[in-house]
Amino acid sequence: MKFIKSIFPILTLAVLFLFSSCGDGRNIYREHTDVNSVGFKWNMSDEKTYKVNVEEAGMYDISIELRHGISIPFKNLILVLTYETPDGKATEEKVDFRLRDEGGRAIGEGVGDTYDTRQVVMPNFKLEKGTYTFKIKHALPDNDPISPILEVGLVVDKVKK
């Protein structure tokens, strides 16, 4: 019974993600990667990698999603987003990822003690046709590992014309 109570919030969020991903047709890519660590600890060395095939050149919103526990002790996280273009050029961006508002309340959608927080980190970004590689890691060496982080995700949405 204790196991069912502990897994219920995660299953509920999985169902919410399933239904929320059936959106307006703008989404061309959405992938989440588990933080495979005891205690949901995300190490700096645990860089998450996503391969995105862009079939049509255009403007896109690139977002990062984090599934985290409400008990995370940070108002924001510093993340590093590296992307490599189809021609092999790599660029690194630092991202100030907000987890809480000015009042200290968690940003995003939550069930139980688990929250999903999404932030557009590269709005109206031009992508050419081809395969891009995106990598995400955290940049908090004084707090490594950070916890509780359950999943790290990347979302690519086509910008409406």
How would the global form be characterised? globular
Q: Count the beta strands.
A: 9
Q: Unreliable stretches, pLDDT < 50, 5 or more residues?
A: 10-22
Rg (CA only): 16 Å
Q: What is the straight-line distance between the termini? A: 50 Å
Please state the average pLDDT score: 87
> What fraction of residues sit in β-strands?
over 45%
Summed up, the helix count is 1
Helices and strands, in N-to-C order? Answer: HEEEEEEEEE
Helix content: 10-25%
What profile does the largest beta sheet have? 5 strands, antiparallel
The secondary-structure class comes to: mainly beta
Strands in their spatial order, largest beta sheet: 1-9-3-7-6
Task: Describe what this molecule looks like in 3D.
The chain is mainly beta and 161 residues long. The chain is built from one helix and nine strands. The protein has a five-stranded antiparallel β-sheet with strand order 1-9-3-7-6. A four-stranded antiparallel β-sheet has the order 2-8-4-5, with no helix packed on it. Strand 6 and strand 7 form a beta hairpin. It is globular and about 40 Å long. The N and C termini lie far apart (50 Å).
